[in-house]
What we know:
Oligomer: single chain
Helix content: 40-55%
CATH class: Mainly Alpha
Distance between the termini: 52 Å
Strand order of the largest sheet: 1-2
Largest sheet: 2 strands, antiparallel
Shape: globular
Radius of gyration: 18 Å
Number of helices: 7
Number of domains: 1
Number of strands: 6
Order of helices and strands: HHEEHHHEEHEEH
Amino acid sequence: MPTAAEKSSAPSSSTPRFRQGAGRISLDFVRTLRYRGTATAVDELSDPAALAAWVRQCGPIRAGRIAPPTAAALTEARAVREAAYALIEAARSGAGADACPGSARRILNNSALGAPPAPQLSNGQLSWIAEDPVSATLVLIARDALELATSEHADRIRICAGADCHALFLDTSRPGSRRWCSMGTCGNRAKKAALRERTEGR
């Protein structure tokens, strides 16, 4: 199945609505609560149509229109997102994934029981299908969060050093010293701010 990083590098005829490139689909999904923990936090999953748009852009299913889900499905999606965040934060801590609250574990375990998008090969091309793309993508997200938090890569999950960003990402750099969710955004802003400080200090 294509990773979030691979899909984010694919060419697009329009500017993507949602951020990608965190390295795992569960981390990209957690990012839909932007500026988490700050006074300027914004929930990008503002309504069912926004959830459908995220699944269309960031999930593996590319064919066909994805209809807006129900309000209940949006509530479930937000619950999966927050459970994934709680698990990943526990995995990043010294206590590890076992420190994840039981309620978050139950949400992710229950969601992971469903059927994820299924692969289909046609004319040499691989695609992904599901009767309910939104529900199937939530299954994929829950499974990915569970796998990531208990894997050897858990200690490579970072939080962006950008002021007020707080986005999570998987550091796949060889030295393990990546600081920014994106060099094109937070990294670039930090470099410009540092340059201004040096210039003004002369």
